[in-house]
Design goal:
mainly alpha; 3-stranded antiparallel beta sheet; 52% helix; elongated
């Protein structure tokens, strides 16, 4: 290394100021004379050749190597707290599920800085092997992308690039195409889905039996239909209706008249059985998963459609197709847009929202609900009390089963501790 010379520099002056080229430190005692002396010294030293300069990142690299990054589980908790401030609860639950799924499969116990693109590639490959759709996989990858973006922006992730970047299966245009509105079931498909003999056999649980019927005649979202409580089923001024207290949108909070078809099917008889049992929900046997109770119904509907070969190559038919069908049926029957949207819980637009509040409580909204017609044999599907004993047995309720499972686990731990001589 070339050693610079310092000709004609007063030794006493040098003691007053400090020059440390290696660390880039230049200090004076604060006086103008001392500052002038230091500047004179720097001028005489002159520029430093690049090869003589110590690497600036050496200290930072050594310091960074000694620091541990956050465990992925703790990082996810921080991220979800931020998500709560900008996302709906349902979206936060979905993001939590996606992150937990990723951790379980490929990143259990890892620190965030040790998670790179290979980990995400392995996760994506696992989802593909299971046959998950490109849209579903991309939804999970988007959650992970948001996670690592948050970590990077907050200085919690050191690698320079987001490990999810470049791994999405669909382009923005392709995703938009995949997000086209769902198609309604055709009358023939409705008749096949609700063919009495096979429907009773395939949809043999309370939620899988009543859920599709509620969807077909009210247009409820699957999350709404599976979360109904007995106390939400009301009777005011001669009209039976279902109150939806929580929904995807503000317009979804509404009162849905129970149409004559559902009354003929014996829906209120089942509600009476639930009330008599004291069950917390109409479908109390289902445990909440990812913020909702619809997982089993969704799987049952998918199996039902596949068994009947009712599928769409563009993935535009699902439980939501019932909702589209109700909106279409009401429009075709002459219902005005405001009335139809109040029943299914769609926004009708800011320009009329202020004036539309009274519509949801009009007694004649029941007449609008009765406009929905389907080629379904109501007499053959009439409820015959087949779920009464099941719902009356508290051991079938999800919350009770969860409590029993937790108590059993506590007993097992206590027994193991006693046998080992340790305290529980």
């Amino acid at each position: 290394m070339r050693v610079p010379a310092f000709p004609d520099i007063d030794a006493d002056a040098i003691r007053k100021y400090e020059i440390d080229i290696g660390r880039g430190i230049y200090k004076t005692d604060g006086t103008a004379a001392d500052h002038a002396a230091m500047m004179q010294a720097l001028e005489r030293i002159g520029p430093i050749d690049p090869e003589d300069r110590p690497p600036r990142s050496a200290t930072a690299t050594a310091r960074g190597a000694a620091l541990k990054s956050l465990p992925i589980g703790e990082a996810v908790k921080l991220w979800l707290e931020e998500c709560k401030g900008k996302n709906a609860p349902r979206t936060v639950d979905a993001k939590r599920y996606h992150a937990e799924d990723f951790i379980e499969r490929t990143a259990k116990g890892a620190e965030v800085d040790h998670i790179g693109k290979p980990s995400v590639v392995a996760y994506k490959a696992a989802l593909q092997r299971e046959g998950q759709t490109a849209k579903t996989i991309d939804n999970k990858l988007m959650s992970l992308f948001d996670l690592f973006k948050y970590l990077s922006n907050h200085g919690l992730y050191s690698p320079p690039a987001n490990p999810v970047a470049g791994l999405f299966m669909l382009t923005k245009r392709e995703r938009k195409k995949k997000s086209q509105p769902y198609d309604a079931f055709t009358p023939d498909e409705i008749a096949r889905i609700f063919e009495p003999t096979s429907y009773r056999a395939a949809m043999s649980a309370p939620d899988t039996y009543w859920g599709p019927l509620l969807g077909a005649y009210t247009g409820m979202r699957i999350s709404e239909a599976t979360a109904i409580k007995a106390e939400d089923v009301k009777h005011v001024n001669g009209v039976h209706f279902i109150h939806i207290p929580k929904s995807k949108t503000s317009a979804g909070v509404r009162d849905v008249p129970i149409c004559d078809a559902l009354l003929s099917l014996g829906f209120l008889d089942y509600v009476a059985e639930v009330r008599a049992a004291g069950a917390p929900r109409l479908f109390a046997h289902r445990l909440i998963i990812n913020g909702g109770y619809s997982k089993e119904l969704s799987a049952a509907m998918l199996a039902r459609r596949r068994a009947l070969n009712i599928e769409d190559l563009n993935d535009r038919k699902s439980f939501h197709s019932f909702r589209v069908g109700v909106s279409t049926a009401l429009a075709n029957a002459g219902a005005n847009t405001m009335q139809a949207m109040r029943i299914v819980g769609h926004n009708v637009g800011d320009s009329v929202e202020v004036h539309a509040g009274y519509v949801r409580d009009l007694p004649d909204l029941k007449k609008i609900a009765d406009l929905v017609r389907h080629p379904i044999d109501l007499a053959a599907l009439k409820y015959a009390g087949q779920f009464g004993a099941f719902i009356a047995n508290r051991e079938n309720w999800a919350e009770v089963k969860a409590e029993a499972k937790a108590a059993d686990l506590d007993r097992r731990r206590a027994n193991r501790a006693r046998l080992s001589g340790a305290k529980p």
